[in-house]
Amino acid sequence: MTTTAAESDAQPDATDLRGGLGQVILATLASTVGFWAWMSIAPLQGIYATEMGLDQGQISLMLATPVLVGALGRIVVGALTDRFGGRRMFALVLVAAMPAVLLVALAGTVKSFPLLVGAGFLLGIGGTIFAVGVPFSSAWFPPHRRGFANGVFGMGMIGTAVSAFATPRLAQAIGYLPTHLLIAGVMVVMAVVVWIGMRESPAWRPSRQPLVPKVMGALRLGVTWQMSFLYAIVFGGFVAFSTYLPKYLTTIYPDEVDAVGAGTRTALFAAAAVVARPIGGVLADRFGPKVVSLISLAGIVSAAYIVGQQPPEGVLTGAVFLLMASAMGLGMGAVFAWVGPSTPPDKVGAVSGVVAAAGGLGGYFPPLVMGATYHPESNSYSLGLWLLVLVGAGALVIGGMLRDARSAAR
């Protein structure tokens, strides 16, 4: 049975949704922990590269593997959230990803690159947590406020900044192995807090549709492919830079930036995107997600062009990276504000999972491309950055031809 746009707007009385913001904030905290675990390899890539003697290709593979699994796994996790609810799935993802953190610790201790890549594969489970939070958060707010809800939940990607800032400092202060034991312990504690304190929205109804037909149904919707394309650029770009930025900075500016400094700059990059994401959702609720998405893409293209010129490390470089991160954050908030009103409510989880997977895949390939296109003689990643400019420009044109969420819902 097809759900109409009018039906998708139907919600219980607003009083039934009291406490929704608190639940979304709890989901945001859970997502923060999941993102910290998911991105725990990247901040220490310099240590792995030195102690294991890794080349550019091996470093790129090491950084990209968790992103790939975190991307593809979101399709399944999003559909399962429609069936089992956010409370169960948040706890499950956190518990299931915890052993991967311990395997990363073991791989680094015994200096085994194959084990590190295998552990990174399993670490991708932590990245699937995003696909849990979108349908969970959407169910706690009426359609016209879902941009805000998903924007707040999206701030959980601050876990990327936490990882970039805290992981190398913890490794210096308490040691490599204790750092990973701490991350694993935080994940277990967060899973317990979720299990005790989280509850499903009164508006949420479990979907009994089998997994494969549900995913296939999501893939048959035009909005799924449209939003997947846009999200692959805005979120994919964020993941790619959050993952590869420490390597980029220490390679292009080796005399000015060390591993800790690169982690600090990456944390600021992630924080700028985190702050911009709920703003993008609120602006999308007010002015429409299409306008905000186009502004986002224009900002990404402009910033990528400037970065490609490799300006001297300093205020200009920092400002440009912050501009790029903010543009990506606005776009992330806008795209998921576009998904909710355009998608039948029983398919929000499945569609969100596919779109989130596309975003993760968008973050998988750039590190590989950056490693493959690096020019050692000129110490330049300009070709990879030019590809981002061209893809972003193409998305700007295509995005301009799409209908906005209000039109799509009709």
Question: Can you walk through the features of this model?
Answer:
There is one protein chain. The longest helix is centred in the middle third of the chain and has 31 residues, at 222-252. The model is unreliable at 1-15 (pLDDT under 50). The chain has a single domain, classed as Growth Hormone, Chain: A (Up-down Bundle), CATH 1.20.1250.20. Helix 2 (20-38) runs parallel beside helix 5 (86-110), helix 2 (20-38) packs antiparallel against helix 7 (129-139) and helix 7 packs antiparallel against helix 8. It is an all-alpha fold and 410 residues long. The radius of gyration is 20 Å and the shape is globular. The protein has helices spanning 5-9, 20-38, 45-52, 56-84, 86-110, 113-127, 129-139, 146-154, 158-174, 176-197, 211-219, 222-252, 259-287, 289-308, 315-342, 348-373, 382-401, 405-408.
Sheet/helix structural class = mainly alpha
Name the overall outline. globular
Overall tally of structural domains? 1
Averaging pLDDT over every residue, what do you get?
83
Q: Note the main sheet.
A: none
Number of strands: 0
The CATH class is: Mainly Alpha
Provide the CATH topology: Growth Hormone, Chain: A
Based on the structure, what is the oligomeric state of the protein chains? single chain
Number of helices: 18
What low-confidence regions span 5 or more consecutive residues with pLDDT below 50? Answer: 1-15
Can you tell me the CATH superfamily?
MFS general substrate transporter like domains
What percent of the residues sit in helical stretches (DSSP H or I)?
over 70%
CATH architecture: Up-down Bundle
Please give the alpha-carbon distance between the first and last residues: 17 Å
Rg from C-alpha positions? 20 Å
Relative strand content: under 5%
Which series of helices and strands comes N to C?
HHHHHHHHHHHHHHHHHH
